[in-house]
TrEMBL record:
It comes from the Bacteria. This is Uncharacterized protein. It comes from Paraburkholderia aspalathi.
Length: 88
């Protein structure tokens, strides 16, 4: 995510203050509206990156299965079959 590019596209002014060696020092200024656009643009870019690296199977599917299993009560393994235990 290129923060300087996002800031410039949001309407913020980017000024190069100086350069020492390889390090660049910049100032960013602009209106409150531009700052709000910048914040929204960073949030959107962050969500896009998270979705791009998400595993192929969504986590939500497994939690519903787990909730259903827990709602049916604990199960005790007997060979390959399971039977429900009674909780007092």
């Amino acid at each position: 995510m290129d923060m300087v590019k996002i800031a410039r596209e949001s309407g913020l002014a980017i000024v190069l203050d100086g350069k020492i060696g390889r390090e660049e020092y910049t100032s960013v200024s602009g209106s409150m509206t531009a700052l709000l656009r910048f914040g929204e643009a960073v949030r959107s870019a962050s969500l896009r990156e998270c979705r791009r690296f998400r595993p192929s199977s969504p986590i939500g599917d497994g939690t519903m299965i787990l909730r259903k299993k827990l709602a049916n009560g604990p199960q005790v393994g007997v060979g390959r079959k399971f039977k429900r235990t009674q909780i007092p």
